[in-house]
Amino acid sequence: MIVAPRPLGADATIGILGGGQLGRMLALAAARLGFKCHVLCPDPQSCAFDVVRRVTEADYTDKEALDRFANDVDVVTYEFENVPAETATFLSARRPVLPDPKILATTQDRLLEKTFVTSLGIAVAPFAAVDDLAGLEAALASVGRPAVLKTRRFGYDGKGQVTIRAGDDPAVAWAEIGEQPAILEAFVPFEREVSVVVARGLDGTVQSFDLCENEHRDHILKVTRVPAAVPAAIADTARAIAGRIAEAFGYVGVMAVEMFWVAEGGGRVLVNEIAPRVHNSGHWTQDGCTVSQFEQHIRAVAGWPLAVPVRHGRAEMLNLIGAEVHDHKAWLSVPGASVHLYGKPVVRPGRKMGHVNRVFRD
Ligand SMILES: Nc1ncnc2c1ncn2[C@@H]1O[C@H](COP(=O)(O)OP(=O)(O)O)[C@@H](O)[C@H]1O
Ligand SMILES: [Mg+2]
């Protein structure tokens, strides 16, 4: 049995699983609409804890804590995609959980995700399942080189993946990803990486933000620019693809679809991965748009009408990664720059510490 969602009253409490910066910014957006939030996260230093009314510091498998959490909230949502299926099922029997946890089963596994996207008639890079070294050799024969070997589960910021080029020993790559169930994907000679942040409301309304163009450094998002410098037809196609995926999932909330724009042969869009949550490439919306991705997500899970996003101008989002967080002092006096800091107590290399949004009305 699952509890069906319904529109929330203004005094409702929204439960958020996960206490990182995405949870923090969701809670801040919820507060602006008058909602209260309760964050559950095992990490005592969760930066979302600092901005909400109630926190539960507990493991995702702690049934007693989950029960108390569920009793205190009107709806449950999440800020990260690796919520254990068992946790989601447990909570779904007590409160509406949005987006529907069954979507997580698909997006937590690259093989299921790519198979699902393909089943909708949407293009992805050629791929093959890999379960052992012999399977990897067979996959290389069908997919070709260069190719990217990725673990099926738990990959992020380029972790759990390795590129196999001409002359590379497959056994080394297989060892490097820890001999885990994986997929092999053809390396895509993309022109640009782009993403669509899309929302679907409880009433089925779909609203997508403008196409973003993403630049990574060391596999971590560094800069997002909006609108993406791609032909208009490509942008339309990309947004339509994201909308179709949201509809096929019966999604409620905000999700992001990462894609590659390949210019050769007239140009096409390939889906890379789906994030069933608010996404780093949507942070620009906080200052560059009439509604942020965070507010849009809260509206969706609250069963409120979605906003129609209107962009204020050309927008740029710059991540402050690791020690770059100290650069915020310089950004504070740059005209048109908005500084966002996550309040994380420990600076670590590669850790997302904050971001700067800039809007240009040219
Ligand atoms: N098939 C591919 N071809 C070319 N580049 C890729 C491919 N797959 C991933 N990459 C690069 O690696 C980055 C991270 O891969 P991704 O699949 O998005 O995993 P995650 O973001 O979960 O670490 C991508 O943003 C892209 O820059
Ligand atoms: Mg990615």
TrEMBL record:
ATP binds at residues 110, 150, 155-161, 185-188, 193, 216, 272-273. InterPro entries: ATP-grasp, ATP-grasp_carboxylate-amine, ATP_grasp_subdomain_1, PreATP-grasp_dom_sf, PurK, PurK_C, PurT/PurK_preATP-grasp, Rudment_hybrid_motif. Residues 114-302 form the ATP-grasp domain. Its EC number is 6.3.4.18. It catalyses: 5-amino-1-(5-phospho-beta-D-ribosyl)imidazole + hydrogencarbonate + ATP = 5-carboxyamino-1-(5-phospho-D-ribosyl)imidazole + ADP + phosphate + 2 H(+). Keywords: ATP-binding, Ligase, Nucleotide-binding, Purine biosynthesis. GO terms for molecular function: 5-(carboxyamino)imidazole ribonucleotide synthase activity; ATP binding; metal ion binding; phosphoribosylaminoimidazole carboxylase activity. It is an enzyme of class 6 (ligase). Homodimer. This is N5-carboxyaminoimidazole ribonucleotide synthase. It comes from Rhodoplanes roseus. The gene is purK.
